[in-house]
């Protein structure tokens, strides 16, 4: 980070604190969905979400180092889902986007929080109003969870002895569609049935294009499940309506890891270990072995279904991505299968150019609609047959529908050759209960109405 940015961080410390120092079995949390531009027409929204999903894929594919509780989970029209958590003493309620592709928890922080290209008011955490907030010291092992590329000696150069007062260096996180930066805190997380002291959380003082804080659910030490000691977590995503109606489902954090009934399971794959790409260790890789369209196997080169020695290839599940991303060598065969099997319904290439989604079909003259079934086949025999609403969406007027999957060979830039080949997004997971069994290294799912 540039010295001018670091100086700015130091000048903002007085906004944080009057002083600086280092320092049941199941919970259910409501899940909630934001709108960065509620006046958009549906063409524009689909274009925005397709672009956002590709930007998110770009971030994931290029990422480098950088008992039960239930919480309401709400969908938002910008394409993500959020929960509300309480931090501090007394607790301050802050919304967080759930993100299985990230392992850090941060909230907008201080009264002077700056967010560029943010179209709505964002609640911020006020450290001075909490008696338990502390800036993280650079000698604290948790500082290494954030700055895992640096040794204690290099990040604490101004320290002398065990009583060092130097703070953990500022962090900067780059996302596909924005960024954030701030200082690390240890603070009390106030759950519905327990309090967790000394929880590592980011106090972000500036962001770009971030509609809320971020609750990283990934596989790293700093993630929400890891810090809580959760054995498994699950969520059921209510349908996308591209609005903020307030309907919610739940994020369930299970501290005992009791088995969930009637789920189809596949084993979580071993994460690739690649020098300089530690972010790959955060993702939930699943063994997607086959895709069928209309019951016919799509011919996908096997090398894209499994990560190679450079960490390129394979499939991950990412709650922070809206539309499923596919490398163009995976997407093109899927695209061609739909074009070949959908007969008697004309394509609308003008809408494809506007939205970046393809294929799009004009259904204005169809009395009834029948489209090929899309099914994902996972290692171990688990199969996910998607409802039509999970892979086709109405675009603009009610006479055009588009496949809600994206690739990098279209309107939004060059091919992304690195990282996962397939990123399974939340749009495709609507009305599925999905479970991440972190203790037994399994991913489970079943179709159901989420509410």
TrEMBL record:
Residues 1-22 form the signal peptide. CDD domains: pepsin_A_like_plant. GO terms for molecular function: aspartic-type endopeptidase activity. The active site is at 99, 318. GO terms for cellular component: extracellular region. It holds the Pfam family TAXi_C. GO terms for biological process: proteolysis. Belongs to the peptidase A1 family. PANTHER family: ASPARTIC PROTEINASE NEPENTHESIN-2, OS07G0603500 PROTEIN-RELATED. This is Peptidase A1 domain-containing protein. It comes from Anisodus tanguticus. The lineage of its organism: Eukaryota, Viridiplantae, Streptophyta, Embryophyta, Tracheophyta.
């Amino acid at each position: 980070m540039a010295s001018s940015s670091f100086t700015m961080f130091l000048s903002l410390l007085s906004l944080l604190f009057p002083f600086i120092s280092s320092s049941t079995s199941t919970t259910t949390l409501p899940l909630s969905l934001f709108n960065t531009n509620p006046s958009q027409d549906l063409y524009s929204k689909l274009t925005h979400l397709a672009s956002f999903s590709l930007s998110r894929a770009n971030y994931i594919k290029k990422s480098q180092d950088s008992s039960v509780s239930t919480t309401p989970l709400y969908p938002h029209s910008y394409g993500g889902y959020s929960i509300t958590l309480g931090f501090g003493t007394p607790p301050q309620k802050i919304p967080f986007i759930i993100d299985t592709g990230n392992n850090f928890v941060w909230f907008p922080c201080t009264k002077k929080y700056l967010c560029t290209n943010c179209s709505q008011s964002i609640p911020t955490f006020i450290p001075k109003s909490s008696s338990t907030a502390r800036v993280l010291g650079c000698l604290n092992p948790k500082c290494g969870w954030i700055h895992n590329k640096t040794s204690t000696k290099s990040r604490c150069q101004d320290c002398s002895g065990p009583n060092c007062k130097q703070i953990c260096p500022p962090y900067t996180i780059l996302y596909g569609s924005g960024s954030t930066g701030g200082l690390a805190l240890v603070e009390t997380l106030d759950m519905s049935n327990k309090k967790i002291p000394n929880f590592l959380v980011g106090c972000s003082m500036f962001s770009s294009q971030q509609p809320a804080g971020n609750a990283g659910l990934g596989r790293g030490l700093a993630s929400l499940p890891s810090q809580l000691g959760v054995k498994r977590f699950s969520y059921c995503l209510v349908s996308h309506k591209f609005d903020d109606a307030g309907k919610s489902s739940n994020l369930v954090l299970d501290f005992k890891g009791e088995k969930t009934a009637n789920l189809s399971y596949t084993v979580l794959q071993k994460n690739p270990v690649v020098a300089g790409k530690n972010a790959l260790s955060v993702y939930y890789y699943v063994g997607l072995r086959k895709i069928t369209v209309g019951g016919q196997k799509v011919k996908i080169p096997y090398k894209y279904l499994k990560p190679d020695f450079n960490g390129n290839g394979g499939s991950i599940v990412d709650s922070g991505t809206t539309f499923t991303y596919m490398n163009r060598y995976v997407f093109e065969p899927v695209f061609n299968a739909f074009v070949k099997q959908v007969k008697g319904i004309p394509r609308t290439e003008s809408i494809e150019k506007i939205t970046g989604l393809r294929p799009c079909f004009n259904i204005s003259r169809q009395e009834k609609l029948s489209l090929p079934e899309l099914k994902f086949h996972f290692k171990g025999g688990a199969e996910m047959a998607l409802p039509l609403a999970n892979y086709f969406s109405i675009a603009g007027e009610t006479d055009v529908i588009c496949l809600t999957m994206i690739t990098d060979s279209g309107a939004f830039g060059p091919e992304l050759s690195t990282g996962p080949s397939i990123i399974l997004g939340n749009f495709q997971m609507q009305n599925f209960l999905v479970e991440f069994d972190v203790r037994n290294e399994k991913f489970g799912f079943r179709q159901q109405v989420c509410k």
